[in-house]
Amino acid sequence: MRFHSPSIQYFHAVRRTGSIRAAARLLNVASSAVSRQILKLEQEVGSPLFERNARGLTLTTVGEMLARHVMNVLQDLDRFRSDVASLSGVWHGTVSIACIESLTESVLPDLIASHRTRARRVSFTTEVMGSSDVLEALRRGEADIGIAIALRHPPDLRQVALKRFRLGALVAREHPLARRKTVTLEQCLAFPVIHALPELSIYHLLQPLIAQLSETPEPAIQANSIDLMRELAARGVGVAFQTQLGIGRLSHDAQLVFLPLDNAGSPVWSDLGIYVRAERTLPAFTESFLQELVRQLGERERQENAAYQPNG
Amino acid sequence: MRFHSPSIQYFHAVRRTGSIRAAARLLNVASSAVSRQILKLEQEVGSPLFERNARGLTLTTVGEMLARHVMNVLQDLDRFRSDVASLSGVWHGTVSIACIESLTESVLPDLIASHRTRARRVSFTTEVMGSSDVLEALRRGEADIGIAIALRHPPDLRQVALKRFRLGALVAREHPLARRKTVTLEQCLAFPVIHALPELSIYHLLQPLIAQLSETPEPAIQANSIDLMRELAARGVGVAFQTQLGIGRLSHDAQLVFLPLDNAGSPVWSDLGIYVRAERTLPAFTESFLQELVRQLGERERQENAAYQPNG
DNA sequence: TATAGCTGTTGCCGAAACGGCAGCAACATG
DNA sequence: CATGTTGCTGCCGTTTCGGCAACAGCTATA
Question: What is the rounded distance in angstroms from the CA atom of residue B277 to the CA atom of residue A31?
């Protein structure tokens, strides 16, 4: 079922590996064959597609345009294949997800588990990374679905849904703040805090708020792992800041208490976006999972925000 | 710049012409070559793509799936080509429009003329047809932009915009009704009327309203040409029914008067939809024209509806 | 019923494209 | 300076593609 010219496939491999010889190894062909196909492509397009550095190849502007087209073609080929397969039998294929750490605690495992009971031949690949890396993985075609903090997203990605969750403080059950319903940032900063490093998006959400305060005390601990921050908070080391999503149901019977942040009377939101490459039609089984993901996240959004309403 | 395998192109040609030999003539190759490529494709997909009738070929279910993929590929190739071209110089290409007759009077010619003063190398192909044919032409990839009466549209088309215009009666200046601001259907039916044939969408808009009336008099004249109906009305033959869009500025200095229809106190709307194939990214110059079309139609919608407000 | 005209398919064969092997120059790294 | 990497290029066998002609199946017309 490979009815597209070798040039397309070879170009795609060279773009991904950044080298002709590496692409040749990947494709199990001689490097000369790959080299010639690239040269032929460049001749047909009428413009160089790669810049030849001593240590590999980099895309030119025209090359990036072609890469976009080739990605559209190959991803749509993928969809076509799965469409034909689903015509005669069960769904089967792989859903590739790129997401930030907050999802790994309950949302994603619950969802994948429940989805696999219904569609057993659909497997999953999930990779955890930073928000900007999530978007980049999508653009490069390395993931089908991306979940990240919703910053401004590039035009070649489509924001399927946008869900807001309250940012809050995470403290041990014995912590002096633990009895409050909500907390302000000032109240937290009176205690030792566990700050996120700039590579986590929580940093970028809190930084502007902290900058507004008159005094900015030194953070006790800085970390780049949501998990580590949570465990530190549970041991009473200090106050951590997270979305409630990342804590989920553990907070009920565990040492942790989640206190929604209150900034001058209004909540502090963390916007979670679900992304997909814009120029793409998803295979049916991927689309189905996506719908379910959006629905589940919407459910969580509703529940968690209702729990902290003025009249809740 | 033809870096896609011949099978793709041949398949596309066969689908369009419905015959291998006709496709071969179109492609300037021997019919045997085309036949072999189709057979090879069917072998690779693992399923027949066409049903062989004595008088040509018809797509099977799998064939339709492949046709969809191939269309996506070729249309995106087209976009890539125009993107590369626009990189080094002026926009050039062709915008292909399928629309219903109402647009040809003023909206489309005005828009095309003004667009060509700014982008001289962009040419236009417009074809007038019925609403359902507009959607079909889009699905078959024979048009880039479609404008039709907004009925329920298939999922593979995207409704870019939806504009509502008032349906009204069209009478000669000397007609007894001509002095009214608005008219009801009953009032019109007291005179000879020029009815649309079922192939025009006006028929489907008026039919349910006429069916509600107690008496349904015989129509004086039936026609399938908006133009003919307008000319007949101008000669005082009877009352025609149209959207104001189809009359436009001519009504000012001509023999015609447009009277918005009043149905039990509320206007009768004719919804105009602008459509595009969903699984497609338009070339930049096409997208630009599309935006302008939507803007202009929105402007007309605002103007014409404001002219008949209760307080206007 | 016979004929003419259309359909898609198939051998045969030359031409074009593809791909593997080995060797080249250019650059980076040690 | 030696070694390992990069991409590129003759040479040549294999594969694929495409044109020509002939074939069988069907339809419409005479």
Answer: 40
Specify which residues A256 forms β-bridges with. Answer: A172
Whether A4 contacts chain B with CB within 8 A:
yes
For residue B37, CA distances in Å to A115, B11, B24, B60 come to 40, 8, 11, 17
Per the domain annotation, does B265 fall within a domain? yes
Looking up residue B185, the CATH number of its domain turns out to be: 3.40.190.10
Length, in residues, of chain A: 312
Residue B1 lies in a domain: no
Interface touch A87/B8, C-beta < 8 Å = no
Domain identity same for B152 and B282: yes
pLDDT, residue A208, reads 87
Q: Does A85 touch chain B (CB under 8 A)?
A: no
Q: Which residues of chain A have pLDDT under 70?
A: 216, 219, 248-254, 307-312
Candidates B66, B73, B158, B287, partner chain A, best to mutate (most A CBs within 10 A): B73
DSSP assignment of B86-107 equals HHTS---EEEEEEE-GGGGTTH
Task: Tell me if A27 is assigned to some domain.
Answer: yes
Which residue, among A9, A69, A86, would best test binding to B if mutated, counting the most B CBs under 10 Å from its CB?
Answer: A69
Domains contained in chain B, number: 3
Q: Which residues of chain B fall short of a pLDDT of 70?
A: 216, 219, 248-254, 307-312
pLDDT single digits (tens) A66-85: 999 999 999 999 999 999 99
Predicted pLDDT at B253: 60
Nearest CA in chain A to B156: A281
Q: Using CB atoms within 10 A of its CB, is residue A262 exposed (0-12), middle (13-18) or buried (19+)? A: buried
Report the CATH number that the domain containing residue A15 is assigned in CATH.
1.10.10.10
Distance to chain A for B129, nearest Cα, Å: 29
User: CA B312, CA B15: separation in Å to the nearest integer?
Assistant: 53
* B169 and B265 assigned to the same domain: yes
Domain containing B243: what range?
165-269
Distance B21 CA to C6 C1' (A): 10
Give how far Cα B22 sits from Cα of B53, B56, B67, B118, Å: 15, 9, 18, 39
- Same domain assignment for residues B71 and B59: yes
Q: Which residue of A has its CA nearest to B37?
A: A3
A206 plus A254 within the same structural domain: yes
- Note whether A1 contacts B: Cβ–Cβ < 8 A: yes
Residue B311 within any structural domain of the chain: no
pLDDT tens, residue by residue, B34-58? 999 999 999 999 999 999 998 889 9
A306 touches chain B (CB under 8 A): no
Model-level pTM?
A: 0.90
